[in-house]
Amino acid sequence: MASLPTLRIDKLLAALNAAEIGQHPVEVHGALVGLICGGVEQNASGWTQPLLELMNDGQALPKELQALIEELYQDAVTRLSDTDFGFSPMLPQEEESLPKRVEALSLWVQSFLTGIAIIQPKLNEASLDVREVIQDLSEIAQVEFDVAEDEESEAALIELMEFTRMAALMCYAEFGPDVDDDEPIDVGVLH
């Protein structure tokens, strides 16, 4: 299994910058997880094109960046489908300032909502619980970045991060594939 997504932000940021794609790694991860949780076909042709549309106007990515995205995809599918692996949104480490982490969470959630909406356009027909979660996520996406560096704000961020994590898992449970325990998921890596 690959390293936790939070440990790869710098590498992904460098690849995005080299490809002149003006997105932050948390946005890419959020959109990718949104597509997966929305029920995108879990093969290369199912998830790649919608992500390219969101990231790069449908254009192909440089090989290094494509490889990083494929690794991120495989990691996200594994972590979402098996709770033992501990899914969590790709966010900066605690060493970053609280306002930067709050902004990153907001960006991740915005991208997640965009990704899920592209694949699941009838969110208004989802279960009541999922509709409420989506509504709550839309409020998290608008959170203020100007927060005090104190324990109360830190605790609030941790609570929002946990809510976001559980919301993604709930959406995946509702829209993701029905998988037999004996059948592995085809994560469709492009080569």
Automatic annotation (TrEMBL):
Pfam families reported in the protein's UniProt record: UPF0149
Gene3D superfamilies: YgfB uncharacterised protein family UPF0149, PF03695
UniProt signal peptide: none
Family according to the record: Belongs to the UPF0149 family.
Protein name: UPF0149 family protein
Organism: Shewanella schlegeliana
Lineage: Bacteria, Pseudomonadati, Pseudomonadota, Gammaproteobacteria, Alteromonadales
